[in-house]
UniProtKB/TrEMBL annotation:
Gene3D superfamilies reported in the protein's UniProt record: Amidase signature (AS) domain
Name of the protein this chain belongs to: Amidase family protein
Keyword Signal: yes
Leader sequence segment: 1-25
Pfam families from the UniProt entry: Amidase (PF01425)
Organism: Arabidopsis lyrata subsp. lyrata (Lyre-leaved rock-cress)
InterPro entries for the chain: Amidase_dom (IPR023631), AS_sf (IPR036928)
Thylakoid among keywords: no
Domain of life: Eukaryota
Length: 456
């Protein structure tokens, strides 16, 4: 089981719990089971939601002392599952939402108005009370999903200090599928923020189809997030599941934007065999400036945006030990041993606290990033008539983040040590239909993912 961290606030925040080892109930195995598998088992009465929840809770109990992947489980999960089972008995199961009765883990930066905490991995927010469910949680509940608990993350989404190691409180290296939607497709209301210009909420699942089913459940307009108003116009009628087609690579123009790697050679052959037009050795203009962060102006803008957006989030809480970034800094100093301030510091927090809103310097940084995006990824894709840019690992993260562009990461292999690596497909804003076609067709043509193994 894994959590996906923020990479300059553009990460994916929802995890679907299909990453646990084998367990059996009747003739049903949860290992590598998809949403469709679970839905069929429900229909054929080989499985109940309560049984499924109990299997996952048992697996978490066994594995969490090793993996530390789940911060807490929901004491109401079994009750939610029982309700789902009763609803299924009373209604035609085929007419219920596809997530009905399916357990979902939420990253611990996504607010839930229940018995669960929302802490962003920090003791400073332990015991805080949110005003309402995050919009994406509300949509999940409406879809019938069972909220199983909160998943771990790098504290404050890795934005407290440059020295904090990942996972203290990693996605292309976890052999899972992650979808980062275009900014605005999913609401950020009720999520501990970094930058409303970049933050994007999306799913992490085992398969592209599972991730797309979850994406369909959480996209849409939210009056509490103004970015969703214009973005919602780009949500296709009938949702995104219609783009799950094995012929999705046929005719697609893909640009490889990384140095030659032997790991990619075989995949390029596969992409071409499946009908894609692959253009090698492309370079995103200004890539080194974007990745560098400082010269791009991203760091200047993010620091100011973080202070403003976090202060706004904290002030809206019904109850909280901290009400501002300054309070969080003071908390960390007071409880320095608990928060390991001596080891990891909090220099990002301190630098952000020194900012004073969006002044001329910050506005100039924002304008520079718009120009970098317009003269970088947008120029390359339009001049080359590309449907997607392609690279291994998470090297596209900064490029996609600063422009609010979408991306999908799919398992692509394992190194000599058995560590997974992924392949990323990125595109222009609201190009999710094309990216889903590409990612799903690649996944189905390769079927690389292996079930995780845990050595006792």
């Amino acid at each position: 089981m894994v959590a996906l961290r923020f990479i300059f606030s553009s990460s994916l925040l929802i995890l679907l719990l299909f990453l646990l080892p084998q367990a059996l109930t009747s003739m049903f195995s949860i290992q590598e089971a998809t949403i469709e598998d679970i839905r069929l088992a429900f229909k054929e009465k080989r499985l109940t939601s309560k049984q499924l929840v109990e299997l996952y809770l048992e697996a978490i109990s066994k594995l969490n002392p090793i993996l530390h992947a789940v911060i807490e489980t929901n004491p109401d999960a079994n009750q939610q599952a029982e309700i789902a089972d009763k609803e299924r008995d009373l209604k035609n199961a085929t007419k219920l939402p596809i997530l009905h009765g399916v357990p979902v883990l939420l990253k611990d930066s996504i607010s839930t108005k229940d018995k669960l905490n929302t802490t962003a991995g920090s003791f400073a927010l332990l015991g805080s009370v949110v005003a309402r469910d995050a919009c994406v949680v509300k949509r999940l509940r409406e879809s019938g999903a069972v909220i199983l608990g909160k998943a771990s993350l790098s504290e404050w989404a890795n934005f407290r200090s440059f020295s904090i190691p990942d996972g203290w409180s990693a996605p292309s290296q976890s052999s899972v599928v992650g979808i980062k939607p275009s900014v605005g497709l999913t609401s950020r209301a009720g999520v501990v923020p970094i930058s409303l210009r970049q933050d994007s909420i999306g799913p992490i699942c085992r398969t592209v189809s599972d991730a797309v089913h979850l994406l369909d459940a959480i996209v849409g307009y939210d009056p509490l997030d103004k970015a969703t108003k214009s973005a919602s116009e780009f949500i296709p009628e009938g949702g995104y599941k219609q783009f799950l087609t094995t012929s999705g690579l046929k005719g697609k123009r893909l640009g490889i934007v990384m140095k030659h790697s032997s790991r990619l050679d075989h995949h390029i052959k596969t992409l071409r065999r499946e009908g894609a037009i692959v253009i090698n050795n492309l370079t995103i203009p200004n890539m080194e400036v974007i990745v560098g962060g400082t010269d791009s102006g991203e760091e200047i803008a993010l620091l100011a945006e973080f202070k403003m957006s976090l202060n706004a989030y904290l002030k809206e809480l019904v109850k909280s030990p901290v009400r501002s970034l300054a309070d969080v800094i003071a908390y960390n100093e007071e409880f320095a041993e608990q928060e390991k301030v001596k080891e990891w510091g909090q220099e990002v927090f301190l630098t952000a606290e020194a900012t004073n809103g969006m002044g001329e310097k910050e506005k100039a940084a924002l304008q520079k990033m718009k120009e970098l995006s317009r003269n970088g990824i947008e120029k390359l894709m339009k001049e080359r008539n590309l449907d997607s840019i392609v690279a291994l690992g998470s090297s596209l993260s900064s490029v996609l983040a600063i422009g609010g562009y979408p991306g999908i990461n799919v398992p692509a292999g394992y190194d000599n040590g058995g560590v997974p690596f992924g392949i990323s497909f990125g595109g222009l804003r609201f190009s999710e239909p094309k990216l889903i076609e590409i990612a799903y067709a690649f996944e189905q043509a390769t079927l690389i993912r292996k079930p995780p193994k845990f050595i006792a």
